[in-house]
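I'm stuck. Please check this protein.
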Amino acid sequence: MIWGEVFEAVGNMVCTLRKLTVALFVLFCCLQGKRLLASDQSSVEYFLAEGRQAILQRHYRKAIHVLHEGLKKHRNDDRLELELGRAYLAGGSNRKGRKLFREILLAEPSNRLAKLELARCLGYDSEYEQSNQIYEDLLRASEADEAAAIGLASNLLHEHRSRDALIVVNRALAFHSDSLRLQEYKDRVESGSFVGEERERTEPRNLVEVGADYINDSAGNHSWSSIQRGDFGIRSNLSNRFLFEQRFQHSRDDSFEAVEIFSEQTRWKPLPSLLLSAGGGAVRFNNHDVHAIYDVALAFQLREHLVVGATFARVPIIPDAEATEHRLTAQGWESFANWTPRRWQFDAVWSRQHYSDSNIASRQSAGMIREWDVHRVTLETGYRYRRYSFEKDLEHGYFSPNSYQSHLAVLGVRARVRNRYRGALQYRTGMESASLDSPFRLAWEIYCRNEAVIANWTVGIDYTKYHVAQETGAFNADAGRITLTYRF
């Protein structure tokens, strides 16, 4: 008995010591792991990994913040500075990225990666001469530098120097015969394309815009309007739009009219090929009469370049002061299709609306555009057809007579200066008929658009001569618009 009790006591002691040893070991591992984790989270590799992951997910502000924090703990680390410059470049802050790359090269003139990024940045800003010089220096140092060859070929394509681009690509293929990127560039040149490497852009999800319009038509109608718009992203596939418009109208024979329109619209993209939107609001006329408006839309991307859709909506009819006096709204369907194969654009629209004054309107339009790149501009030629018809001619001002159609040839030119200016000039000429019985007569229009981009700000100034000023009526008019947009 005595020996049994002794053995039992020793066994219990051994068991207790074993448990205590295990507990101490687990505690030691936890403390060591915590110390190692804390050490890892302050390492250069940790900040680089977090920054690169944020860039891949297009969270550029997060990437910039993480890399800035890394540089606070690891001052002047060229790897962190290089990655921060890439984050600035991806987010559109070329100036900040360029400054960082130059600082790295000032401290380390032979840094190949910084040279490549600086050349890429200069190329994005269309400063091709300086960018080409850097790429050529890299290729002189190593003819097998694939990244430098691709960058130089991209610049040459943007400069419409396809023969020089083909020479660069063929030389690089001698060292990298299995390079898919180089083979792709060779195919581009041989197919006559002038498409070089483009920055992968992610449009800001939010914007605030203010604008003003003025229309003066041949019937003596004058219209001013102010527009305030806000687009806000809720999630990656969900956004909201707010719109407030004030319109002021008068003419020689009608009293002054003021109209206010407020609407809100939610857009949801549950699938990459499906877009749903719904919205509503109100229109308030000069006599404080208020009417509800709304819209529901559905759009499908059936193929890579083919989109079809339909909208059911109720909208105000306010083309001029005479029509506005009748406090009209129209409700109905609109269907559309848009097909954009390479260098072509085809579109078609059909709608039918029931007016609150018992009229019924239908609208059909179709068009095609062919584009050509010539030097540093894009030329356009095409055709546009439009037809409006109304079952009744009620002389309510929104259309008289009750039918209109036009066939116009289209000639246009578009230009882009770096990423700071976009301009378009389009001339349309052909024949139009203002009623079912009237003969066709000569018609022409001019459309001019200008956009200046300064950081996140865009200033737009548009002018149209002999413009079909309203969707519900044919007017010869001068129309001008100015907009100021901030994207964030």
About this structure: The first strand starts at residue 207 and ends at 217.
